[in-house]
């Protein structure tokens, strides 16, 4: 048998987006905006291409972009990051996560993952021969039970994967969570893989507790980011990883034989655009408005909101509508009501049915209005 992932099918995002096309449904499933990106940024890409930036970039990334990222890391989080040795540009956040896992995981290593978990983590661990040790987040507030983490640590534990703001639930880590993590792993060799692709998409006055704020944690972390999320261009598939020089040296050994280097004109454009701080500093307020608008519209339905403090997503309980499994429920929602959502059970390995589905609110107001119009009669 040649399959390395015998129990894995097609990712839920592709499945649900295909159903959206098949049933001409409104797609609040997969996380992407249905509105345009910055014209200025598009102009900068065109300019870069016209100016001849069309050949391979440096494998680490375009130097001025690395510098701009280092400045941003210091500005926002007080982190001293060396642009030459501690940052690598990657084709998206997912690739950065996978490369980090491949860089350090060996067969038999254990990796702590919290469920619900973004769907690429567990296959990434398994493809590298390591073992996911799954710890459920509390329900319904989706927080980490640190006592339970302590009980699962042993000499085989190699890595802990964190994701804040969290996909699919929109929960965020607090400063206290980071303190708990520090005290748990400070005398161990455990590494941290921190998925921070939604770093700016955080609401209600919460502060993003980046690993970059904590020098002792950063010493043992790969921290992954995505430009697609910040600039309404998920199709660009461009991101980056920050890690201490020694770890980054190993990361680059893997990266150089996998994709080697990333899209040049977009890196050149981003090197300029990243200096426009307003573009990312205003993102949280912009997205919060969208979350609030969806919440306001959804009051007309029988769905009940779960809290979302960040990310592109808000989860809703449908327990007042039906007792069906989440899968059956979303299938019926597409086929009978013409709206796509993601079953949160897709982010768990074992079957669960909390009767919760995830909606993406990063859509035009008219899209959200049209979707909710269809959900009002849901029974
Ligand atoms: N991590 C999380 C939690 C995500 O939601 C996403 C969504 N796309 C990614 C990583 C991947 O980002 P990218 O598209 O840049 O690969
Ligand atoms: N991160 C996006 C989501 O959760 C989708 C990315 C993907 O399709 N792989 O919807």
TrEMBL record:
Q: Which Pfam families match?
A: Aminotran_1_2
Identify which cofactors the protein needs according to its UniProt entry: pyridoxal 5'-phosphate
What organism does this protein naturally occur in? Paraflavisolibacter caeni
Q: Report domain Aminotransferase class I/classII large positions.
A: 25-375
Q: Record's Gene Ontology CC terms? A: cytoplasm
The protein depicted here goes by the name: Methionine aminotransferase
Q: Which domain of life is it from?
A: Bacteria
InterPro entries, per this entry? Aminotransferase_I/II_large (IPR004839), Kynurenine-oxoglutarate_AT (IPR051326), PyrdxlP-dep_Trfase (IPR015424), PyrdxlP-dep_Trfase_major (IPR015421), PyrdxlP-dep_Trfase_small (IPR015422)
